[in-house]
Amino acid sequence: MDSKAAQQQLTEFGEHYRYDVGYLQEFLQVAPKGYEAFQGFQALSYYREKLPLDVYWVSRLASMQVADCGECLQLSVRMALEAGLDKALVKACIEGGSRLPENLKDIFDFASAVASYRAIDPQLDARIDQQLDKAQRIELGVCVATAAVYPTIKRALGIAQRCSLMEIEYAV
């Protein structure tokens, strides 16, 4: 791994998304081999092959709200908008999901329950089974599980702004 190139990538990512990548730069400096392994995880965390765009991002935004309600959530909002998710859907997610279309409301509720380690209502699970095949459910699981990693690293470093009130921007 070229440390200089990795630093440059982080800087560009931070500038592009207006996101503080200081904790990732510290990760790279302090534990370069760990960061190299982490780069493989980063590809996994944004893996989407079978899930429709809206299902992926609704899942991501729902699970990110469970894991973090600050900077990482704002980053996810910017990335969802950049990926082409409708701004109204993004806002509906941030506002708790109640204004989402029924199929996406189910996805939001399901992803939130999975991220929160809550029991899944059997009726909701049956509706999700009607929407998603096994491969898509696996992708949704990866999406939900990986959303928590970034805020978890920040909390471990003592720099998370968990539950800080933040005005979410809806601009890319």
Write a structural description.
It is a single chain. By secondary structure, this protein is mostly helical. It has 2 domains: 43 residues, no CATH class; 100 residues, AhpD-like. The protein is 70% helix and 0% strand. It comes from Microbulbifer celer. InterPro entries: AhpD-like.
Biggest sheet architecture: none
Average per-residue pLDDT, rounded, comes to 92
> What is the third-level CATH name, the topology of the largest domain?
AhpD-like
**Global shape:** globular
User: Percent helix among the residues?
Assistant: 55-70%
Say how many strands there are.
0
The top-level CATH class of the largest domain is Mainly Alpha
What's the architecture of the largest domain, going by CATH?
Up-down Bundle
Distance linking N and C termini: 30 Å
Order of helices and strands: HHHHHHHHHH
Q: In percent, how much strand structure appears in the residues?
A: under 5%
Counting structural domains, the number is 2
Helix run count: 10
**Poorly predicted ranges:** none
Protein structure class: mainly alpha
- Radius of gyration of CA atoms, rounded to a whole number: 16 Å
The CATH homologous superfamily of the largest domain corresponds to: AhpD-like
